[in-house]
Amino acid sequence: MQMVKKILIIFATLWFGLIYFLPSQQLYFALETLLKEKKIEINESQTHTHFGRIELQNMEVFIEGVKAVSIKMSDFTSFLFYQRLHILELKPNEMFENELKITVDEATLSHSIFAPTTLFVNAKGSFGIAKGTIDLLKRNVRIDFVEAKAVTTIEQFVKHDEKGWYYETNF
Fold it and tell me: pTM, whole model, 2 decimals?
C-alpha cells in the first residue's frame, strides 16, 4: 500500500510540475508562427498566462491580410490529458457580416486523450445552441443545432434531417 501511495504522489507531483512549467506563451507563439505560414495572423492586445493556461484578449484574426473575425477573449487550458479552448464574443468582420449574419457569444473546443481523434464543439450565439464533433481521422466536421434560432440567416450553410438542423463538411 505504501508503494502505491508513493507512486501516486510522484505521479501527481510530476503532473502538476509539468502543468506549472508548461511554456504556454511559447507554445502560443509557435502556433502563431505556423499560422503565419498559412497566411493567417492573430493580433491580440493582451496576453496573460496562468497555471496551465493562456488568456488572450481583444483578438483580431486576419486571413491573407483581410480581417476575418474579432474575438473579445479566448482562453486555452491544458491539463496534459485534457485541453480546452474557450472563446467569448466572436464576431465576423463587417465585410463578411452581410453574408454570415451570425455572432458567437460563447464557444468551447475540447480534446481528451480518451478520444484522441475527436474534438468536441459547443457553441451558443445568434443561431441558438450547437453541439458537434470534429473527427481528425475521417477529416469530418458535424455540428448539430440543438436549439436553432434564426435559421434563415444560416439556411444556405446547413441541412435538415430527422434530428434537426446540422452543418457538415470535410476538410
Answer: 0.81
Produce one character per residue of 128-167: b if its CB has 16 or more CB atoms within 10 Å, e if not: bebebbbeeeeeebebbbbebeeeeebeeebeeeeeebbb
Whether residue 15 lies inside any domain: the answer is: no
Dist. CA 162–CA 107, nearest whole Å? 25
* pLDDT exceeds 90 at position 108: yes
- In tens, the pLDDT along 43-64 reads 988 888 877 788 999 999 999 9
The boundaries of the domain holding residue 39 are 24-170
Q: Residue 82 in contact with residue 113, Cβ under 8 Å?
A: yes
Answer whether residue 134 is part of any domain. Answer: yes
Mean pLDDT for the chain? Answer: 87
Domain assignment of residue 19, yes or no: no
- Going by C-alpha positions, the residue among 98, 158, 88 that lies closest to residue 123 is 88
Residue 122, in any domain of the structure: yes
Q: Does residue 102 contact residue 127 with C-beta atoms inside 8 Å?
A: yes
145 with 127: CB under 8 angstroms?
yes
Number of domains in the chain: 1
pLDDT above 90 for 119: yes
